[in-house]
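Re: the pair you flagged

First of the two:
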Amino acid sequence: MFELQLVDRIAEVPYRIRPPSHIRTRTWPISQEELSRVSVVWPTQYEWPAGGAILESIKSAFKSLGVVHEERTPQPHSGVVMLYCLVDRKPHAVALDYSDYHDFINESALAQSSLYFKAQHRVQGYPDPRIVPGGYMVTTKRYYRYYMPFRRRGNLAPTIDVVGRFGFTFQGELRRRAVSLLADAPGIQFLGNTGKVRYSRFLREVASARLSLHLPGNGPFTHRVAEFLGLGTCMISVPFATALHIPLVPGIHFVEVKHDLSDLLDKIRYYLQHEDQRNRIAAAGRDYFDKYLHPEQLVSYYVHRILDRLGDSHESPTTRSLPTHEDRGTSGP
């Protein structure tokens, strides 16, 4: 077993040392004139130190635009990073709330902020117009070394029916029920009832899966939403109580199942049998990630929002360039 694990790790070495993948085209283009109107101070430490791994890709994307520098700044608010910005030479505090709780707004951070990006943004929104969707991030910056080569290899010839690896600290009853249903289901090759594996191996499994199951954790979104979409697998999920900055539409970008999982096996069998529909949803999800969730896209969106809400001119292209999806998907059972 040890020798197999060693060979497996050695096989991943080229991916571990490769540079992260970048976008080709920005969904929200930013001109040099627009960039000259914004500067951002990023903190050198966080209220929750572990949050640094989650936010590192966003910080790097800001740096690539040349609008950010790092300083030691006050970070007193739980689950929130405070960015201190100059927008058209006027100072503003901008909150980036990455906490797991969609019904909770850090009121002390909001009171200090001109704009408040909320990752777990409630579907029905919030009374305060300063609170806007913040998109969602992957687990760690290392993802961007792996996802593109894994996507290219795994999507061409998937070898696994369903991946669904979970911890049981959060939503344990729901997650155990899903694992039990899939492990006992005849005719479905399920990978997940043996527990968690190292991150890079998990990503490789997902890219090689026909279907990947997402379930809520401490919040409605988990990092697997972005990770699954980016890896090009067809994602299955219960309905989301949270919304991204661009609508993620069931039947178009992912397969939706009921909260009680009563239709989980039927949906899985349907999409395993209907490859064309499964591949269409996987491709739409992959395209969604590339256009809207890659950190370089997210940061472009942030800059446009900041200019639109806080700049001297309200002619920023943000509101004109935010795509919407009026129709819900209707394919499948």
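Second of the two:
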Amino acid sequence: MQMKDNEKQGKKQKTKSLLDRQATANPIKDSDQGVHVPYNHEYFYHDDREEIELDPEVVWKTNPNPWASWNEDKGFSNKRSYVKGPDLTDKIDPRYVRSRHPFRRELKWKFVIALLLFGAIWAMFRYDTEYTLKGQALVKQALTDEIDFAAAAAWYKETFAGAPSFIPIFEDKTPDAVGADGTVKLPVVTPLQGGSLVRTFAELLNGIELAGKSEEQVVAAETGRVLLLTDQNEKGSTVIIQHANKRVTIYGLLGKTDVQVNDWVEAGDPIGNLLKAEGTQPSLLYFAVKQNDLYIDPVGVIPID
């Protein structure tokens, strides 16, 4: 037990002697009294606004190789540090390097430039010399003449629109566009070739009469479907054809028919013949056109000689 106490006493004396020797070799100056305060270390800086600790990422980027020299820098208490301290020559945080009022600064410069331009124009109109008169004319022209937007639009279209014309395959030779009315235009022919108009729509109010040769062939005026076929009587037969766009054509006074109900006919297809005439009298064809269930003048729809 006594031996252990003696060993402890020996260690204490040895430690005390080492500390006294180190204190004698490296005395602490008065100026170093605050070295142990963290905020006096180079990792911190004092700012009137607030005490700010530097961002560790910024510290690392400023010193990417902290182990380059282990014996150069000392720690907080003048002891050897095994990590090289960062070079913090500029100890201002990057957040405060940039001006807090960039808009005011830009506005100030713009105001100064505008003031200089105003002063230059005022001085130009103040004195009448060879050069100031030319400047006055330019300013007056810019303020009074209208801008030629048509010429600017033509230049923009010629410069930027379309494919590059310097490449032959892209040379712009596009013809002018033609608008479409969206309606279906089918061929329309006269139902009686060489027929002459003998009674007009103003007389009958529901159609016209065409005169032709005896038993001459009658054709469909437009493409459509046979809607009705009447039986033969002393006035002949009647054929009604339904067309597109809600149009109906009526063929009367036929002596012979070549179609049946629901037959599909094209414009110019034969549908029958006229009645046989007596002597030198011509045979007649009654022809009518209905649009949206209303009779209209056929002369305005089909070509009549």
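Helices lie at 2-25, 56-62, 102-126, 130-144, 149-160, 201-204.

-B.
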